[in-house]
Amino acid sequence: MRESLQKSQTITDNVVTILGSFDHRLSALETAMRPTQIRTHSIRKAHENIDKTLKAAEIILSHFDQYRQAEAKILKGPHEDLENYLEAIAKLRSNIQFFGSKNNFKNSDGVVSHASSLLNKAISKLQDEFNQLLLSYSKPVEPERLFDCLPNSMRPSSGSPGHEGDHNGKSNHHSESHNSIADAVVYTPPALIPPRILPLLHDLAQQMIEAGHRPQLLTMYRKVCDQIFEGFDSLAEQCFAEVTTNSVSMLLSFGEAIAKSKRSPEKLFVLLDMYEIMQELHSEIETLFKGKACAAIRDAAMALTKRLAQTAQETFGDFEEAVEKDATKTAVTDGTVHPLTSYVINYVKFLFDYRSTLKQLFQEFEGGTDSSQLATVTMRIMQALQINLDGKSKQYKDPALTHLFLMNNIHYIVRSVRRSEAKDLLGDDWVQRHRRIVQQHANQYKRNAWAKILQCLSIQGLASSGGGSSNAGGDGGAGSSSGASRALVKERFKTFNVMFEELHQKQSQWTVPDSELRESLRLAVAEVLMPAYRSFVKRFGPLVESGKNPQKYIKYTAEDLDRMLGEFFEGKNMNETKR
């Protein structure tokens, strides 16, 4: 048995040695295989990157193919196959957009530049084709063909020379016949442009407008008229005037209707938009509607421009007056920023989007050469707003809330001005002056809201008048309650608790919407209240704590007060403050 056991032990040791050798060999094999695994992983990642690169390359190559196809069609010109030409332009635009978004593509700038140049050439050819189609199909109608537009009963007889009528009765008979069927006749106007050509002209016009060639398109209509009546300038002007007067007059009458409508502050921006457009169109109007025959159109356009400027100027005055006299009863019970304030500030911000237009407008009426008029108007509007806010602040019964309301609103005005272009116009002096006004109202709020409760924490009036006093010992000096009446101290603590709870309940419902202003106001209150409370508790607390139910009088620690101050000006409702 001993020998068997020894043999078993020997075999076990041999097996352990063999297994240890295997473990060592496996570890060595893993070490040897690790570079192969790393290379395999790298090869797999390389294959993935190659696949992605190939796909990206295929997309880029497909766009290059589209570009070459579009280029070939564009070089042929639009005359033979306009539909494919327009399709090629669309593909070219798509290519410009594609390569323009590929910032990491080395040659994208060059491709975009070349494609944009080709697009400009394509649009130029379209413009020529548009002009050619108009010249080819907008031919004047022969006078004799105009009679074909009339019903048979109204056409002159072929034997009447010059179509002058017969003074022996034919003319009268024709007139009677005309009157009897006037309501029933149907006129057939001539087709000035073949119907099949109109869609082509529409597509060409659309492409030119999308390419930013709208002015050239309008100058083109005038050019066609001039070419048709070449050598007859007065006739060309008269024809163009008669063709366009009704449409232009209808358009201008729309602007006149707006300019003459009842003024309101909201319409000012519409008026400024229209005034700006009319100013921009002035040179084009002068070019398109040249000559004596179109003088009425030019005069009407100029009159509309002046009427729009005048109405806009008057609307400014109306707005200033409306702001000062605004009597809205919108209740702002929490002292936050009034809707009128945000409305006026947003209105002024929008005005600065029209700064250049307003400069033109003021120069036209007041002859100014700088931005002083806009600054003056803006200051008057701000002044009118502050006058109105002063009036609204008097609606509050609590003086503290009055000053909180004015602090909030003027701070909103100052902050908005500092973050807008109005700061450069109104100047740093205006901003600093109104920041001081904000601080003054904050100080007035503290004085009105916290003066009484701070009196509860003063030592005045706490001296004992007789034997009812008790000394808690203390350390003397500031920590001593020597000479203080326990009853008076208890009464002071009770009064403080009631007043602070009332302030907490009320002012937690008030709002200071700006987070920085809210925190700075809380800090300003804490800097006054907390040292006074700590000093009072330290000095007179032992006097109360030595009696019965001290927690009834010293209800709050300094940390409790600080936490509750953090709930002030959050605009909470009544139920939240009670909880």
TrEMBL record:
Keywords of the record: Exocytosis, Protein transport, Transport
Gene3D superfamilies listed in its UniProt record: Exocyst complex component Exo70
Molecular function, one GO term: phosphatidylinositol-4,5-bisphosphate binding
Keyword match Transport: yes
Basic and acidic residues compositional bias, start-end: 163-177
Annotated segments matching region Disordered: 148-178
Pfam family name, one: Exo70_N
GO cellular component, one term: exocyst
Domain (Exocyst complex subunit Exo70 C-terminal) ranges: 217-566
BP terms from Gene Ontology: exocytosis; protein transport
Family under the similarity heading: Belongs to the EXO70 family.
Function: Component of the exocyst complex.
Protein's name according to its UniProt entry: Exocyst subunit Exo70 family protein
Organism: Trifolium subterraneum (Subterranean clover)
